[in-house]
Design brief:
Pfam families: WD40. This protein is mainly β and 332 residues long. The protein is built from one helix and 28 strands. The two termini are 44 Å apart.
């Protein structure tokens, strides 16, 4: 309850990348009505400020690793500076996770049961953190110097893979419940996306002239105490060695052995179980940025809000999803 003698106002704070944060500030003065709940009884010698984050306008992600959704509930998560916005799209309602270190978030990923969210951040000695969706932090690990470009949960939610910025040149797998890194190795290319296989036995990193398969089972077989070196094998790119692979997703169901990538130039690529680039199709767009794969469909995010849909077995074109109406436009 607010003192009638005080004031309440909503202010907008602008930050880089066109991010605007709306907060409500309630000011309770030292001289007040004397009757309201905040004023009696108590010490009225100093003003009281109460700040509540109501809404965040804007997004600071720079790649597909900065946007994720929970397939169980439809909840969407994305970074906005040092805040992760949890958006309920049907209710148009926001919840927020605030980074106590004040470092900006750079990557987000839900666990497959939707109960936890992994985040990466940038800045001096950045951390990979795990949060309950309700907002409390449950784990963290620090192994980078500059920033974290990608994070992903394994399919059984037991492990998290994280990739550092290009200057860190490190990919790590850690047991987040124990807070320990179990496997790690160097990666020389800029990595933009990462995806775990359905059985959690390997994961794939994709980026600038880079598609690489990392095998956890083979790494565990090494007789090494402590953190073991990850074993990785490069994808066979053929004529696409100069492409930027900006999105990657492992197959599901009957095509679980396949791996799908999109390039920034607008190609959808299929890698088979032996890492060979077996097929590709032109998305008929100026650029592509991301993809999502289910047992029945491949959804490719393209320029101008276009989404192309393909079948995962033969890369057969199925349809194009309509772009949403412009904000404020009347729908006939």
């Amino acid at each position: 309850m607010q003192c009638p003698a005080g004031t309440s106002r909503t202010i907008g704070k602008r930050e880089p990348n066109w991010l605007q944060v709306e907060v409500s500030i309630i000011y309770l003065p030292d001289r007040c009505c004397g009757n309201c709940i905040p004023c009696v009884p108590g010490d009225m010698s100093a003003p009281v400020f109460q700040v509540t984050l109501e809404k965040v306008l804007g997004i600071t992600t720079v790649s597909s690793s900065g946007l994720t959704s929970d397939p169980n509930t439809g909840l969407i998560a994305y970074p906005a500076g040092s805040v992760v916005v949890l958006l309920h799209p049907l209710r148009n309602q926001q919840n927020h996770i605030l980074n106590g270190s004040k470092k900006p978030f750079t990557a987000v990923a839900f666990s497959h049961d939707g109960k936890h969210l992994a985040t990466g951040e940038s800045g001096h000695r950045p951390c990979v953190r795990v949060w309950e969706v309700r907002g409390s932090q449950v784990a963290e690990v620090q192994s980078y110097k500059h920033g974290v470009s990608c994070v992903a949960f394994s399919s059984n939610s037991g492990y998290i893979v994280s990739v550092g910025y290009q200057h860190d040149m490190t990919v790590s797998v850690w047991d987040w419940r124990k807070g320990s890194i179990v496997a790690s190795n160097k990666v020389s290319s800029e990595v933009l996306s990462v995806s775990f296989s359905q059985d959690s036995s390997y994961f794939i990193t994709a980026g600038n002239r880079h598609v690489k398969f990392w095998y956890l089972d083979a790494s565990r077989e090494q007789q090494v105490y402590g953190t073991v070196p990850l074993i990785g094998r490069s994808g066979l790119l053929n004529d696409h060695k100069t492409s930027v692979f900006c999105g990657v997703a492992c197959g599901r169901g009957l095509v679980a052995s396949n791996t799908y990538c999109v390039t920034s130039s607008g190609l959808l690529c299929l890698f088979n179980r032996v890492r060979y680039l077996e097929a590709w199709v032109d998305l008929k767009t100026s650029s592509a940025s991301c993809l999502a794969v289910s047992e029945d469909f491949i959804f490719c995010g393209c320029a101008d809000g276009v989404i192309r849909v393909f079948s995962p077995d033969r890369l057969q074109y199925l349809t194009t999803l309509q772009r949403p109406h412009l904000l404020g436009a009347e729908q006939g």
